[in-house]
Amino acid sequence: MTTTAADRTAPVRDLLATAVAALGGQQRDGQVAMAEAVAEAFADKEHLLVQAGTGTGKSLGYLVPALLHDQRVVIATATLALQHQLVERDLPRLVKAVGTVPGVDASYAVLKGRSNYACLHRVREGAPDDQGQLIQAEDAMGAMGRKVLELRAWAEKAAEERQTGERDDAPRHTDKEWRQVSVSARECVGATKCPFGEECFAERAKEKAQKSHLIVTNHSLLAIDAIEGIPMIPEYDAVVIDEAHELAARVTQAATDELWAAEVERAARRSIRHVEGDEADELADAADALRAAVSEAPAGRFETVPEAVADALVLVRDAARACAGAFPKAEAGSDPDAAMTQAKGMVQEVFATAERMAANSEADVLWRTEGTDRIPPMLCVAPLQVWAQMRDKLLADNTVVLTSATLMLGGDFATVAGSVGLKPSERVHDRPEVEEVAPRPSRDGDGSRLADAQPWRGLDVGSPFDYARQGILYVARHLPPPGRDGLGPAQLDEITELVDRADGRTLGLFSSRRAAEAAAEHVRKALPHLTTLAQGEAQLPELARQFVADPHTCLFGTLGLWQGLDVPGDTCQLVIIDRIPFPRPDDPLMSARQKAADQAGGNGFMQVAATHAALLLAQGAGRLIRTTDDRGVVAVLDPRLVTARYGSFLKASLPPMWTTTDPEVVRQALGRLSGRPTR
């Protein structure tokens, strides 16, 4: 008897219906289509890209088939906010609704990097100072000492009550304060050597993950596990990558290393009391050479590495190698020396980074940062591309489902698929007419899968929102193109007029902090009866709270507001975007990638700069419509969106809102929404 696709997906449909009913929700066609497609991807071991618009309920769309899959599934998110939503809300409610259904393994665990957990060895034995001596928080004066004592008390209570010991659950603190109660993977003495290994928060999290069917983690840890080959996650069969539009950037970030003289010096100081020879002093001398070379080098990407920098990197590499080798081996049966382990870990980190930079590989991009009054210039190295590593080390070994509200750039999946290592020629189409034109190259003549092929499908399940009725895309064609000097009088007057007609209720997304602050200052003077907030004046959660509390408020900011801010309702009826968010021309990594694409015969501007802009534009425009009741305007003050040749690509990446370039039409629409009479 032939098994149809409908037969195979029936359990998923049934379980999804049970879950939705138990949670008091509504069945959505897009959610059902997504759940069925994810189940088929798991069964057929074919990768899937699924674009699911805001309001689709995509979390249930992948969690339900993941629960039914017969092997372990990893769920990876880009942001802590979504991870928190999954763990604190979505999964507990889902487990309560369907956990007793036969055939459903509803066990799950959260897994993060080791530095996200308090370290009981450091809490109880103290953190080493720059000379490697273990210090106690009582010895530290002032607020930091009191905060470290508070964190230690919290960690002890968490251990006693068998809580997770995760940083997210700790009392409010700074990065510097958290480092006094945590360790990196290199600094860890190891569970078998640590006297507190059985209580260790990180080890308990790993143990729970070993026993769980679902593991919730983040893009960075997934990259370290799958791409760098450092085992961090228990063996799994499939992975769902939510917020997948961020994956390539997060993998790049995880594979980026930094090196600055002060860190090399610190590693040398930590090593002095553990190394008997001159190796630590030689590492300190190498740090001086690095500082001098970096201070004289030009800021930006090194197309050719300056000779002084290259020589300093070799000095640091060789000195760090010698210093790491000079540490004495731990005697069998002796207690672990945490200060020595951590000092050696720092030296090994310096060696690995200096070795990578000194190699000057064509696969990497090396640059010097500008530096600030507080932070000296440093060297950074990042991979030129990450798609090959993802293809060879993630896609080749696991079934991967990538999902987001923003996966189709320019109206197609090809750009995002290519960024993670999937080829357009490997796409599997369901329509027979497409199959006849483009047969599946991922299959051999007998229908078996080719060894190196990565077949994938793309699915857009749409959105429950009627964008054409709910939103207007306004492009201010009459304005001059944006210049290098920031916002001009014409743009500032346009912003003020739009905000006035909306009576506040405005989220302003700007390409720079300077532009956001200039717009905020201008609107405050022109419209003093409205509340105008600018990013940087308070923490983002506090600004968002104020923005939601009073509809007659404007919130202006930069990248932190373009993605992840969720403010449904009449709080936000106008989103202003000051210019198309192309990367800066002097961005070291983007410029290198654009040049590489040109040299390979492609169009670097479209493949890199326009793609980057399309993704951010789509995310920014997506801040407007968050529920089926939302109404409003996205106002783009950059006329190039409708005048430039690349404008159609960018516009095709945006939600399908009704479009106009008529400012009077938009002002009247905003007036009707705000309840103010038109003039």
From TrEMBL:
PROSITE patterns: HELICASE_ATP_BIND_2. InterPro entries: ATP-dep_Helicase_C (IPR006555), DEAD/DEAH_box_helicase_dom (IPR011545), DinG/Rad3-like (IPR045028), Helic_SF1/SF2_ATP-bd_DinG/Rad3 (IPR014013), Helicase_ATP-bd (IPR014001), P-loop_NTPase (IPR027417). GO terms for molecular function: helicase activity. Gene3D superfamilies: P-loop containing nucleotide triphosphate hydrolases. Its cofactor is [4Fe-4S] cluster. Signal peptide: none annotated. Pfam families: DEAD, Helicase_C_2. Keywords: ATP-binding, Helicase, Hydrolase, Nucleotide-binding. Its EC number is 5.6.2.3. Residues 17-294 form the Helicase ATP-binding domain. Residues 424-449 have a biased composition (Basic and acidic residues). Residues 159-178, 424-455 are annotated as: Disordered. Belongs to the helicase family. DinG subfamily. This is DNA 5'-3' helicase. It comes from Nocardioides daeguensis.
